[in-house]
Predict the structure.
Amino acid sequence: MNEADIKNKPSVHAKIEAKCQEIGFDMPSDLYIGTLLKSLVASKPCGHFLELGTGIGLSLSWMADGIDDCGSIISIDNDPKLTGIVSQFFMLDSRVNILCQDGTEWIKNYSGDKFDLIFADAWPGKYSDLDETLALLKIGGIYVIDDMDEQPNWPQGHSEKAEELVKRLENRKDFNITKMNWSSGIILMTKLR
């Protein structure tokens, strides 16, 4: 299957892709991770979801397309330009809360309800603050990361960081882990306790 075969894209997706082109945003999310996120989010009725790394909002569009009317998403990025753009696309969706904050600070200070799914697509919650992030999941909650296969834009030394992260995740006894050689390299984990 190629990306042209993917159907049922979120209605806002094409507008966000056009904005990527317009502003030269060169780190858009893969369509396949979007379809996976939509399916996972849809499996959690009235779910509470967290995205760390809003970026331009492509993954967020899939997540928002998957949640029901009583679900909610918090999406965090530290780039005010990007969060300003993304907020325009989701301003009429009361289920989506886009925050422009430092991810590490937010993770360390969050005291609200635990999450049904966390998509960590930024340094905080993935390469830093991992234990604190995983603690924010409910039992049965799902942790998802992508870009675990070597990417052309990785800086020197990042491969080793990714390998170390995979080892840390594999050694956790409180999660089931699935590593997928698919899309950009996905790891999906379910919290057991």
About this structure: The radius of gyration is 16 Å.
